[in-house]
């Protein structure tokens, strides 16, 4: 039994492998070029892609995973949202920082609230004729400058909110039991990122609603 992950993003594949490895389920990259539906809804986009890819699945007994994610910045009216991949290619992380350069404050709490953002992920898993949809959200804020190193996409400029003992995100200014201490995803390891990751939350939710091992 194999999960074919439809994506051209190796970083996403690495995160999925990290998550499913504990269940002994191999994840393989499935590079299929699906057309992008014109929608601002991540779920509609993901479902459309899985419908397009199903006829090309190598083995009908295998599972097919599609995940769509986006960075939603409050002060930019949730831009770039579903267009995150395109914006990353055209504007890049520095383009987002440029759009937000007027949003700053000497008060760290006000500054964090001015730069509030969240990663949202929608994961769709197909297995044995069933399709399950799950969502994951990672609240946080946009840094003032990028941190290079680990990660991909907008990781260099996204600082996740601290988490309490139950894994819930805390408001800006509150210190949790899990924290990157103000370091963006781009400055921490993949293992540490998984504690906060919107993608990990979506994949975990899939396991809760779908007997993947059955």
Please give a structural write-up:
This protein has 214 residues and is of the alpha/beta class. The chain has a single domain (3-209), classed as Maf protein (Alpha-Beta Complex), CATH 3.90.950.10. The protein contains seven helices and seven strands, in the order βαβαββαααβββαα. Strands 1, 2, 3, 4, 5, 6 and 7 form a seven-stranded mixed sheet that branches. It is globular and about 55 Å long.
Overall pLDDT, averaged?
A: 92
Find the structural class using helix and strand composition.
Answer: alpha/beta
**Rg, nearest Å:** 17 Å
Q: What is the rounded distance between the termini?
A: 11 Å
**Mind describing the biggest β-sheet?**
7 strands, mixed
Number of domains: 1
Nutshell version of this structure?
This protein is of the alpha/beta class and 214 residues long. It is built from 7 helices and 7 strands; from the N terminus they run βαβαββαααβββαα.
Give short descriptive properties of this protein.
single chain, 7-stranded mixed beta sheet, 214 residues, Maf protein
